[in-house]
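Task 17 of the worksheet. Students: predict the tertiary structure of the chain below and write it out as structure tokens. Keep your answer in the requested format; marks are given for formatting as well as content.
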Amino acid sequence: MIEVLVVDDHDVVRSGLTALLSAEIGIDVVGQAADGPAALDAAERLRPDVALLDIDLPGLDGIAVAAALAERLPGCRALMLTALDRPGHLRRALDAGAAGYLLKSATPAQTADAVRRIAGGGRVVDPRMRGGERSAPSPLTGRETEVLRLAAAGAHSREIAADLFLSVGTVRNRLSSAVGKLHARTLVDAVRIAQGQGWV
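Model answer:
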């Protein structure tokens, strides 16, 4: 029996996935979670074979959860199930240790098949994302990515500085560096480019 943890912040999606997978022979949904921290708690408690993760989660995104699972619970393999079809997201997920990447437009049969293949030690990449594993790596450093992600969420330099325990000047320097590396005209343009590539 393949034990699965379903993680999605939308109740309808989470319930639907749970019903879909529970109806499959040989698959047992042992738990659900609606955010990143709850997903890690549930995974450590339940020790599932597969964690089915959305990327866009509150508290801690699905890629960070996949990385934590790869480190703490290597027996629990992560399958990303997301609407984000950008190569940068795929590359980040695989680099973080996810065993699979499936788009939410996949059929129920494709989803169940992906769970089985991943539980068996395989790797699954949605056919529509083929080639995305080799997408261009982000030119941004980890810190530049962090400040740009917070800026994209609407935080001002002072708020970013407080969140990351940096000076306002350091935050501005990193944002300026990110704008330059992305060949953007403005910070808004840099955010648009980075999000379009899936780098933030």
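Marker's comment: The longest helix spans residues 168-181. The mean pLDDT is 90.
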